[in-house]
Design brief:
Helix content is 40%, strand content 18%.
């Protein structure tokens, strides 16, 4: 199965989408990633990428296609707008150039804010005619209303309708919290909705790293409050700073790991208010985060109040749970409910900074309250946020999508394995594709094909199909010993019959079929077929496929090779096309030299059918499955 992952952020940037891609590659999916230049969160192009971009073009076997974007720089509103907008345009237009020859079975959007970043994924799901997935991490458009980002009521109405259109255009919507499910049901979105939460970014075992910790000596008696993650408006640091002012002389230490738009503003607040017990350590290597968690007496999680914001379960929460440490929540909603339910910490109303200060002082004076027993965090984590279980469930969704597609089962060789069960085999050529394009032929589970002609290569060039002519198939045909009787239905001269008997070393029973309806033709066909019988049908397409299907409905056993007129060419009765014409897949033009009018008429009809199928995008919903 081929999956295109579309995400503005990807490795070496640190997001969970990296783990999803790694998992999919371990499961042997074919995965491509369309992303921007790595610059999050500092806003500068990663130094390592700048030195050697080729090194970052492959991730565990997944091919990475990077498109140029306007870097975040210092993350002003104007710079962020240009960053987001440039990604959308670049992903669509430059991404299309990169991926123009690629086929996919699913497109997966890692929908970080803003949700408009999912637009390129929608574009490719439509142009590639495949199913679309989106993992929704923030509740848009509700969140922008609560943050008062768009103040004009009419503008908000237009924008929110645009967001709903994006959601409704996806086939599958994965939601990171249970609260999102209730919200989306109110949106009247008919897409398939599923709960798909985040998981812990690190395992529950401590990771020891060399790091200078002179100012953070765990044995100095100071209460360490550790926060990791993004420092933005949603994280409610305005109120946190107000509490910090009250606590600036208390025996506590705030350790802030991460960065974001609000970081410089908060540093200035600390200087202006002479707060010396908050340490902004900036962005750290992901391997060091566990080390800082190990320093914590309290792990701190905070979000602004608001129904939409509170519906979010911050990704850091699952990682906090893996530490089995006391969690102090300055938060409402689902995260608050979980903390109180499993009794792994305490929660304060995010609008009440005074109560936050009081709660911290209470905990500082009662250190015994901070002891977490019975591995509460990891137990809840394993039960509700197990990474392997979540990712396997995601893989099941991808597999279900792939199984829902119509499939052309393409063989490279008719080996002995095929003869062990029922099958119908015919050439995938212009005639077959033409009648398939107008739905006069149907794909079924027991129908197989060999790539016979240039048109199969045109439609399915990504599979790197090598053409096999019907003549070549016959000349290389190997019949297992247990097949002892071969029926040839349709035209067969004595010369070609002798050729088949000599080549296949089997008894050939020729049945010349009458003209008439399909039922009238079937009257002349052999009945009560046995497992050791093989039928070779020499009628034109689609008549031979219709007859083969009728036989399969009437008989318990059937092995049918629909070869058309290839027998006469394989026997030498009809002159074969020169090798270079055969290699180009243009054998059908060579055959026009005999029975020109009949074959020209047939070529015209099947070409019109083929083009009709292309215009109607009939072939876009069909997948190739290579049978080795």
């Amino acid at each position: 199965m081929r999956i295109l992952v579309v995400s503005q952020y990807f490795w070496p940037e640190n997001f969970r989408i990296n783990e999803i891609v790694k998992f999919l590659k371990e499961k042997n999916y074919e995965v491509d990633v369309l992303t921007g230049y790595p610059n999050y969160p500092e806003g500068k192009l990663f130094k390592e990428y700048k030195i050697d971009p080729i090194k970052y073009s492959n991730f565990y076997g997944a091919k990475i296609y990077r498109v140029p974007i306007y870097l975040r720089r210092s993350s002003t509103e104007a710079q962020l707008f240009l960053n987001y907008f440039s990604y959308i345009l670049s992903a669509i237009f430059i991404g299309y150039f990169y991926l123009r020859k690629k086929r996919y079975d699913a497109v997966f959007s890692f929908a970080t804010s803003p949700i408009t970043s999912a637009v390129p994924a929608l574009f490719f799901s439509k142009t590639k005619s495949c199913k679309s997935f989106i993992w929704v991490l923030d509740l848009w458009p509700d969140i922008i209303k609560e943050l008062n980002i768009i103040k004009n009521r009419f503008a908000y109405l237009l924008f929110s309708n645009y967001i709903y259109y994006i959601y409704k255009s996806f086939d599958f919507i994965l939601l990171q919290s249970n609260s999102f499910l209730d919200k989306f049901k109110k949106y009247n979105i008919k897409s398939s909705l599923s709960y798909f939460p985040a998981w812990a970014e690190f395992d529950s075992e401590k990771q020891f790293n060399e790091e200078s910790i002179a100012q953070f000596n765990p044995s100095d008696g100071v209460l360490n409050i550790v926060f990791t993650g993004n420092i933005g408006e949603v994280q409610n640091f305005d109120n946190v700073i107000k509490a910090a002012i009250i606590l600036k002389n208390a025996n506590i230490r705030w350790i802030i790991i991460g960065s974001g738009r609000y970081q410089n503003k908060l540093i200035k607040h600390c200087k202006d208010n002479d707060i010396k017990n908050i340490f902004f350590l900036g962005q750290k290597n992901p391997n060091l985060i566990k080390f800082y968690h190990s320093l914590a007496d309290i792990l701190f999680i905070t979000l602004k109040s608001g129904e939409a914001i509170s519906s979010t379960v911050p990704g850091k929460f699952q990682t906090y749970l893996s530490c089995n440490k006391y969690i102090l929540g300055f938060i409402n909603g689902e995260t608050k409910d979980i903390i109180e339910k499993i009794k792994i910490g305490s929660v304060v109303n995010p609008d009440d900074y005074k109560s936050l200060a009081k709660e911290i002082l209470r905990l500082e004076n009662n250190r015994s309250l901070l002891k977490i027993k019975n591995n509460i965090g990891t137990s809840y984590l394993k039960e509700n946020y197990d990474k392997d279980k979540l990712l396997n469930n995601l893989a099941d969704k991808f597999n279900a999508v792939y199984q829902s597609y119509e499939k052309i089962k393409l063989i490279k060789k008719l080996n002995n394995y095929f003869y062990k069960s029922n099958f119908i085999l015919s050439g995938l050529n212009l005639a077959y594709l033409g009648f398939l394009g107008v739905n006069q032929l149907k794909l079924k589970t027991d129908v197989y094909h060999w790539p016979d002609g240039i048109f199969s290569k045109i439609l399915f060039r990504e599979e790197n199909i090598k053409k096999i002519s019907g003549r070549s198939l016959l000349l290389n045909l190997e019949i297992p010993d247990f097949i002892n009787r071969i029926y040839v239905l349709g035209n067969l001269s004595n010369f070609s019959k002798n050729f088949l008997e000599k080549k296949l070393k089997k008894t050939i029973i020729h049945i010349q079929l009458p003209y008439g309806s399909l039922e009238e033709i079937y009257v002349s066909c052999p009945k009560n077929l046995r497992e050791e019988d093989l039928i070779i049908c020499t009628l034109p397409t689609p008549k031979q496929e219709y007859l083969a299907e009728l036989i399969s409905k009437k008989e318990k056993y059937y092995k049918i090779l629909c070869i058309g007129g290839a027998v006469s060419m394989a026997s030498g009765e009809e002159m074969s096309a020169p090798q270079f014409i055969d290699n180009l897949g243009l054998e059908f033009l060579w055959r026009l030299k005999s029975e020109t009018l009949r074959r020209l008429k047939r070529l015209l009809i099947t070409s019109i059918y083929f083009l009709y199928g292309k215009l109607k995008k009939r072939y876009n919903s069909i997948r190739i499955e290579i049978i080795e």
